[in-house]
Structure formats: C-alpha cells, structure tokens
Amino acid sequence: MSAGKGESSLIVFLDRATLGERVRMGRPDHPHRWRDYPATRPEEVVDRLRGARVAVTNKVRIDAATLESLPDLRFIAIAATGTDIIDVAAAASRGVQVRSVPGYGSVSVAEHVMMLMLALARALAPHRQAVLDGSWTRSGGFCFRAAQVMDLRGLRLGLVGSGSIALEVARRAHAFEMDVVFAGRRGAIGGNGKLPFDEVLATSDVLSLHCPLVKDTHQLIDARAIGLMKPGAILINTARGQLIDEAALAAGLDSGRIGGAGLDVAIVEPPPEGSLILDLARRSNVIVTPHMAWTGDDTVQRLADRLVESIDRFLASETP
Question: Which domains does the chain have, with CATH numbers?
Fold first, then answer.
C-alpha cells in the first residue's frame, strides 16, 4: 500500500555497492524504511521497487515501462550528476520527481582530467615501459626518449561544456599557462564567451569533453569532427562514452590525426571482452580508466551526504 502523508516511506537503493564500502551512508531524519541492494539487474527492478516511495540509483536504469509498474513511486534520487538513466519525461507525466546531485565531483573529475592530460602530453606510459622492458638500460645513455613530449604551457585547451567540472578544469589549466577556450554548440556561431565548435576543434591541442549525453551530443566526436581536429591533438572524455564514435577514434589514432586519448568512460560499462575500447587501451598513446574519475573519498562522501539531504527534503514535503 502506498505511504500517505506522515506515514513511513519505503526507500530502496538499487545499487549501493557503486558508492563503495568506505562511504558512510546516512539516513533521512524523517520517518522511513530503508532497504538497499549491492546491485540490481534490469529484470529485478520492478520487484525491488514495488511499494517504494523513493528509489535511489546510480546506474540502474528506470524507463517508462518500469514506471508504469510502480504506482507508489514518487521520487527518484540519482547518486550521480546526470539524468540520462531515467526516462525523465515519463517520470514527469506520472508525477515522479527526479533529482540528481550536480557539482559534487567537480574537483575530483577535474584533477583526473589534468592527470590524463599530463600523462599523455608527457608520454608517461611509453617512458615507464622503456624502464620496465630494458630499453633505457640498453640505450647506454643517461636519457632515453621513447616518444614525443609536450609541455602544457602555451597549448590550447578546448572545453566542450561549461558546467562546474569544465570550470574547475579551466582553473587548473590556467595555472599551467594553457590557452583555454570554450566551444559553443555544434552548428552555432559562438558568442557569450564561446567560440564556434568547429573552430575549437581545428585550433585545440587538447580537447576535453564535459557535456551531458543528449540527442544532440550523441557521437558528437565522430569522423567529421575528428577530421577537423588539429593534427596530433589529445582527446579526453570523462563525461559519457556515447559522446565519441569509438570506431572513428580508432581511425583517427591510426592516421595520426589524434595524437592520444584519455578515456574514463565507455559506451558499455563495464566493456565486455572484445570491445573496441579494450583494444584502444592497449595502445601506448591511449589511457583508459574504469569510470572512476569521480571516486575520490571526499567526493563520494559528499555525494552520499547530498543524496540523503535531497531525500530528506522530499520526505519533508510529504509530511503534514
């Protein structure tokens, strides 16, 4: 039976394990019953949310068909920044509120972006390998150069997106004396401090993606976009895997149009054996990390705290 005003609401966290064991998961102050699961398969969602007033999810999708089967559901709290895992329109039509936690991981992700940028610009992977495989020892010289090395100072960093993460990246890039520019929407003429999208592609030494995944940004970096990029440019994506056409990226790396890539996201996560991104990860000029840019301990704790605050605000609105 649905919980009425003042009654104890059932809250179900579908994938608690995504936040890790180190995070302290608080509880709302208002009356409630809490139930969580380490992970939830798609076919288990409806059964586990049946009777729930509040659903909490990090990566478990809730689509229109699922919502139709959950008449008691009134609030979806997303333990992440974006809302692309929820059919927001279907939720709104059923009076279900959807709230994510924007901005919680800006610093953590920005630091990860700088790590990827530095590692690729200074060819960290091939130089480390030169030590491990004996190339440096066999060279006979005090210095061994395994690949081209670039200084970040003076390079142009093109940022696609202008939210809190992009602004934190810009702040750090300025400290390295990089030339930072922001790209306008694809097809727009620019303005409001942003350059035309194609101009940013053509002039950036490093391109970093920080935009949401929506219809207009799906495969934003495709063969056409890569063909416009500055030869040898570095591409970084810590946003959503679907922003990049991975086949086009592979071709760009093969041709040298792309000088290196740093990816923290994939089209399918985790990527199954044989996935193209796993092949890309084996290249010396590609770094792939397992969608963990946001996982600094302080950052995840901040996410958990804000998540509970969001639920508590909803429960307060339900209380007479």
Answer: 9-104+298-318 (3.40.50.720), 106-288 (3.40.50.720)
